[in-house]
Design a protein that fits this description.
Largest sheet: 4 strands, antiparallel
Distance between the termini: 33 Å
Shape: globular
Number of helices: 12
Radius of gyration: 24 Å
Structural class: alpha+beta
Strand content: 15-25%
Length: 332
């Protein structure tokens, strides 16, 4: 079927409306209001409700699927992601369509844009995910599910250029370094990640007060001494070393993972519910030092609603933010 950019049925249905509008224009009967409405409908047909930030409908919970639903909405309301999704090669065999996560997400996007109901059931996509061992009725960690879903999408996009675009859209590039404290010899290694796992406490087990504090703590270098000393290639022996990480390139879509869980010796998982405010926008040049930040790194919702997810000891666990997604203001 080649490049799939949407459902064919949708395009065929839009033709009579467009022809009718053209006929009105020829007769000189179309008012200014009708012309504006017609143009808006054409844009909707071309780009979809989500792409215009026009309030696509929601998703019903199918049994502990609230975490999955939240992630799907984060993906599908990202216009840069949906542009990639609309250009995937649609599988020609029915069974392959059922197993294709990108294709099922595309169908779900069309449902969310076209349905007149308040919400839709992501049933076909959930069935598709079970083929890939992402089971229903399981309480997932948001960051873990994000990584699993992203990797499934990436592995099933057959167009190499589209897969590269997806990688560039989400991948954070960092440089890990190790500096010998005896001779200053430095070793470096470039690596990447899809989200930054940010701590809630510093190295002294003190609570961090803001997201900016958490970012500074994450990029704070650590001195390795005693049993943690590393082998220096130049000194040819183990020496005290400074270990750290530099931010080298931010993606267009930045995902931050707040580590709100820790494990006790009794194997119980304890949730950290206290408040950690996060800003409406991030300027990494203001947060990190020049040594920690090398890139040119730097959207609008009802911020009062968002601030309710900062968390506190009285907040229900489902109302606390775990993954924060920031979009670059200057894509260039």
């Amino acid at each position: 079927m080649g490049q799939g950019i949407g459902c064919p049925e949708k395009s065929r249905k839009s033709e009579p409306a467009l022809n009718q509008s053209m006929k009105k224009a020829e007769d000189g009967e179309e008012s200014r209001e009708e012309a504006v409405e017609r143009g808006d409908k054409q844009l909707r047909a071309l780009h979809g409700v989500a792409d215009l930030n026009n309030g696509a409908i929601g998703l019903y919970n199918m049994g502990l699927s609230c975490c999955l639903n939240s992630l799907l909405q984060v993906f599908l309301m990202n216009t840069h992601f949906t542009v990639i999704l609309r250009r995937i090669r649609v599988p020609t065999v029915r069974i392959e369509q059922k197993k294709s996560v990108p294709y099922q997400m595309l169908l779900l996007l069309e449902q969310m844009q076209c349905s007149k109901r308040r919400a839709v059931y992501p049933q076909e996509l959930v069935s598709c995910l079970t083929w890939h061992n992402l089971k229903l009725f399981v309480q997932y960690d948001a960051a873990q599910l994000f990584l699993s879903l992203w990797n499934l999408i990436k592995s099933q996009i057959t167009d190499e250029q589209l897969a590269d675009r997806l990688t560039m859209l989400y991948t954070i590039w960092v440089q890990e370094y190790l500096v010998c404290q005896k001779c200053s010899f430095e070793t470096r290694r470039d690596s990447n990640m899809l989200s930054l796992p940010l701590p809630m406490f510093n190295s002294c087990s003190q609570r961090l007060k803001t997201l900016e504090d958490s970012l500074r703590c994450f990029f704070q270098p650590e001195l390795l001494t005693d049993n943690n000393m590393c082998l220096c290639e130049q000194c040819e022996r183990k020496t005290p070393c400074l270990q750290g990480m530099r931010l080298t390139c931010l993606p267009h879509t930045l995902t931050l993972h707040l580590k709100r869980f820790y494990y006790k010796k009794s194997s119980w998982t304890q949730k950290i519910s206290y408040s950690l405010p996060f800003p409406q926008s991030l300027d990494f040049n203001q947060i990190l030092t020049q040594e920690q930040c090398h890139p040119d790194a730097k959207e609008k919702v009802s911020w009062d609603d968002v601030k309710c997810t900062y968390g506190n000891s009285h907040t229900h666990w489902s109302e606390t933010a775990y993954l924060l997604v920031y979009m670059r203001k200057n894509p260039q």
